[in-house]
Task: structure prediction
Amino acid sequence: VRQPAHSCGVVGFKPSFGQVSNEGVFPLAKGMDHAGPIASSVPDARILFRAMKDNKPDCALLAQQNRAIAMSELRIGLLTPVFFEGHRQVTIAIDRALDRLRKSGVTFLTLELNDVERALRATRNMFAEANTVLWDLYEAFPEHFGDDVAEKLRAARKIKPEEYRDAQRYRDDVKLSVERLFGACDVIALP
Result:
């Protein structure tokens, strides 16, 4: 959700697992699939999210979602070194948004996610799931796939089973790390 939105200059909101059903969505990777709104504005994304949201979300972190908070009490975490990598126009827009939030009294915290390189490698290895879904389609219709996706599919065919298992275990570790980060802040801002 976030990557297509980022690439197209629109708003994408990737909800927590379980908030929006994946029913009817073409599967890519069971461990990574998310459905969420892509819209031209934040208010439109909010309207779409409310319409898409399941009645029984499967996420313990949602208990605080309806808690009102003053801007001066809001704590936004910025991940380093992951943050601020991307297209120049997107970086400028993010800087402007963060500056407006600073002026409204929001507190920013610098957060670190340990072993970011391992997290990125694990994410690439999780693409093995997508490969099992998409490889036959790619072989039949390679012209329908961008060069970047085709390269990821080819690379995923080289992933060894033990690398995939390690990626799954590490995903659980990252999930716990992110939950700990939310102990320090209310929101983690990502491009």
